[in-house]
């Protein structure tokens, strides 16, 4: 292999695939980035077995030569050092040459670096994926759906299936569900999909979707999502992102969501976030995160928290609407803040079916997003 | 005590004094910020016994009312919670009221916070300082002198005196010296001082000077520095910064600096930094940080490093000047980068008196700044 490539393009591609490099891998070859130079361009690959990412650098783009290829070939180079040294090279023109025993030389200006490369034959093959089950959606929508749900996955590895987000596809709609044992987040959207396509057991790790969100392009563009037996492939412009589907069956969460409310209120999202954010500061001190909400006759709520060491805090918020029985309810302020921060609506609707029943939070005028939080069993 | 104060001014003052709050203090009262409200304004005080900082908020500034005072008084409030909650209050007008038992109420908009305050009588008194020995200097010069020396202090607590920067005042000049056992940094400047004033045993902790640098104002202004028996007081506009002088006698370092060189070179600071920065990436892998410099007949140097695991790197740099015997010398690349990064000169002069003798780095045309690095005893 021998080629020159423009530093900025190489840097960008390394930045993308590096998100699949795990610092805790026990498989030596996976600490490296695989480089394949072919007649079409350069492909970089990185993987931690759960996630695999490929980034492609074409020979030219918009009439500008990006890669000059002198000899095809492949090599695996240590990811951390390779990405750091490329970023610091003095010139845009970077030459990479691989000789016997994968001995690799990188030249840029008057810098010359010799790296011991690894055998690309030892690098695991990426899964071959049939492209017959495809959904297509805007990257902005995907990003938003991930942001609105993935924070609610469980971090407890004893129930691995709950560390993922469940994807359900039915009737031309895509639905994400995330839940740990204390809260649930769900977001639904109509997408461009063959109405005969139905899935209910695609579960993708929350951590993986977080990495995907970092790679999704800044500008809105259409993403193809290919669904296979136990893999999902996200196809972006020049980037392929493969992820494993989690093993197991996701629990049925539909029964958790009440169909009618005993009490309903509408409140300014910003005012509620700010008040709970302040209450959180005290609730955090006692490690409980408990904040209380008390509804009042004058269509207001009082938010309060206390810490045995520091003191107590009360906040008054006027409601936009209040209907039903006045309740006094306690909840985890951190969970409430997580739910409120993804609302993307000036006013939110909160529904209650009793002081010990789930709290349901929705944007005032959008039935596609729903957050559920279990209250704390406290009095006082 | 009862007053209202504008949130932004209170926030700024808290930000300044908080730099003296240590999370590791074992003295409970020092986890707090002392607030004194008098007829002149509000004074905030924080201390970790080594550093004490006071920030003053006047009743008004430029015709704008900042503080409305209803009752004088003092209280100590828990620093962490106090600073976080003030930052998040909903309105600019913040009311603080202290009642019996230092029970403190903070009101802002419809937020009300009750904090258990501590007795200000328990708060340690700040040292009383005679203001007869004063030096005055521009804040920018002080900041620069700290930046150019304090990185070289020792981090090894077994010789506490070396964790400080030595200040020498003589003949109207102020000189800073910092050294651990491997390098030395020194910076000198003429300042506005009574020529009879002489000191040679003011040693201030490098960490303290780092905190001072964060507080020194953005715009250049004159700073008064008051030197007392075992304290130094930095007087800025509205801020007083007290620091302890380290106990002990600073070693005489004047003999370490050679008076004549066997080899001298002048090189572009940027080119040398970039080359050593790349070489550092490999040298770091073997935890030695060893980088080699070899001088060549054609007025160039070769910078090289290697790692048993990764490979090796070589860099060629053309010199601006080269005089004397051609040397091959090894050094700690991290120390060299620290020294080069504070040069503030496009070209630097490096002087050598042999492969095992100190390396002396200076700006090409400025004798006020000098960095010394001991070479490594390696061959090859």
UniProtKB/TrEMBL annotation, chains A, B:
It is found in: Cytoplasm. Residues 137-252 form the DNA polymerase III beta sliding clamp central domain. GO terms for molecular function: DNA-directed DNA polymerase activity. Transmembrane segments: none annotated. The keyword Membrane does not apply. Residues 1-127 form the DNA polymerase III beta sliding clamp N-terminal domain. Keywords: Cytoplasm, DNA replication, DNA-binding, DNA-directed DNA polymerase, Nucleotidyltransferase, Transferase. Residues 255-377 form the DNA polymerase III beta sliding clamp C-terminal domain. Confers DNA tethering and processivity to DNA polymerases and other proteins. Acts as a clamp, forming a ring around DNA (a reaction catalyzed by the clamp-loading complex) which diffuses in an ATP-independent manner freely and bidirectionally along dsDNA. Initially characterized for its ability to contact the catalytic subunit of DNA polymerase III (Pol III), a complex, multichain enzyme responsible for most of the replicative synthesis in bacteria; Pol III exhibits 3'-5' exonuclease proofreading activity. Belongs to the beta sliding clamp family. This is Beta sliding clamp. It comes from Paenibacillus chartarius. The lineage of its organism: Bacteria, Bacillati, Bacillota, Bacilli, Bacillales.
């Amino acid at each position: 292999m021998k080629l020159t490539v423009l530093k900025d393009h190489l840097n960008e591609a390394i930045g993308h695939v590096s998100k699949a490099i795990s610092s805790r891998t026990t498989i030596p070859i996976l600490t490296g980035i695989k480089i394949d130079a072919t007649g079409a361009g350069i492909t970089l690959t990185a993987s931690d077995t759960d996630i695999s990412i490929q980034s492609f650098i074409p020979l030219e783009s918009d009439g500008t030569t990006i890669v000059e290829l002198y000899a095809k070939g492949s090599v695996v180079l240590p990811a951390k050092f390779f990405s750091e040294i490329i970023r610091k090279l003095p010139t845009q023109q970077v030459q990479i040459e691989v000789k016997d025993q994968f001995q690799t030389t990188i030249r840029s200006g008057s810098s010359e670096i010799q790296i011991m490369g690894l055998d690309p034959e030892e690098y695991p093959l990426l899964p071959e994926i049939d492209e017959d089950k495809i959904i297509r959606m805007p990257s902005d929508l995907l990003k938003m759906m991930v942001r609105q749900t993935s924070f609610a996955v469980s971090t407890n590895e004893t129930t691995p299936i709950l560390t993922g987000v469940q994807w359900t596809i039915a009737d031309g709609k895509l639905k994400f569900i995330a839940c740990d044992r204390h809260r649930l987040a769900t977001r639904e959207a109509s997408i461009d999909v063959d109405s005969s396509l139905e899935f209910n057991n695609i579960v993708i790790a929350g951590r993986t979707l977080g990495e995907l969100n970092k790679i999704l392009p800044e500008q809105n563009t259409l993403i193809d999502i290919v669904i296979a037996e136990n893999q999902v492939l996200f196809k972006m412009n020049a980037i392929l992102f493969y992820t494993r589907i989690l093993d197991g069956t996701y629990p049925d969460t539909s029964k958790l969501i009440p169909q009618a409310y005993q009490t309903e209120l509408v409140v300014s999202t910003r005012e509620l976030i700010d008040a709970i954010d302040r209450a959180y500061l005290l609730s955090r001190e006692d490690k409980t995160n408990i904040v209380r909400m008390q509804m009042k006759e004058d269509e207001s709520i009082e938010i309060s928290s206390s810490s045995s060491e520091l003191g107590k805090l009360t906040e008054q918020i006027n409601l936009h609407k209040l209907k039903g029985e006045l309740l006094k309810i306690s909840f985890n302020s951190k969970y409430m803040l997580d739910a409120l921060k993804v609302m993307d609506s000036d006013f939110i609707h909160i529904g209650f079916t009793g002081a010990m029943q789930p709290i349901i939070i929705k944007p005032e005028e959008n039935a596609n997003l729903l957050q559920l939080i279990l209250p704390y069993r406290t009095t006082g």
